[in-house]
Automatic annotation (TrEMBL):
This is SAM-dependent methyltransferase. The keyword Methyltransferase applies. Coiled coil: none annotated. InterPro entries: Diverse_substrate_MTase (IPR051052), Methyltransf_11 (IPR013216), SAM-dependent_MTases_sf (IPR029063). Belongs to the methyltransferase superfamily. Keywords: Methyltransferase, Transferase. Residues 49-139 form the Methyltransferase type domain. Gene3D superfamilies: Vaccinia Virus protein VP39 (3.40.50.150).
Amino acid sequence: MVDIEKSFGRQAFGLNPAAYHSARPEYPDWVFDMLVGRCGLRPGASVFEIGPGTGTATRRLLAFGADPLVAIEPDGRLADFLEASNATPALQVLRTSFEEAALDEGTFDLGISATAFHWLDEEEALDKVARLLRPGGWWAAIWHVFGDDSRPDPFHDATQSVLTASTSPSAGHRGIPFGLDAEARTEALKRTGAFDVVEHKIVPWQLVLTTEETMGLYATYSDITAREDMEAVLEEVGRIAREEFGGRVERNMTTSVFVGRRAADSTTGAEGW
């Protein structure tokens, strides 16, 4: 098993942005209800987004009135797609890494990252996130986690031998996917000393896919795009979906959100929904 370098995430998903965008599932409404009701997303809110990719979350943030929305996307192919798909002056796309992005500190109402934050050094990135937020501003890290070991997953079992070649940072380091490790993610927020409220919510659900949709989704996984035999792997995934599952694949999904409110001082606290 080979670990995928974090730097790979900056160029792993831009080969076919349109296909990536159509294959990735939307974030559920409850995520945005929470951002609006709890985290200050509103018309005129100043927002930055780390690693927006093709804009699955970006589009919804703009619809709720984020203005400006500063999207930091290091892959130029994804940045071009994002800009072309969201033609509004409210969106500002920075073609750079978050580490190198020049942003005004203490000016943002909300910062988010949707299924991308595991590609960064968490400690360093959270320190910069905290500096960018105004006192009382919010940070939200969101993940779609594909798979759930706590529930039966026949398709995962049937394809496991095909897919075990490399490990993405999304897999985490404690036997728990990065985006589901509530203890690690909340402790990282608290260690900054910058957030006075830390909360999280984790919701399981199920995604039903056709054979073509299954192949399209798997073609967006970094542990597959990193392989030289990517096309052969996708063909085998498609064969299993078609012949062993009758063209109807059910995948266990989990969506998680971790939020923190920027404190005016160093007092921190934690709680869960």
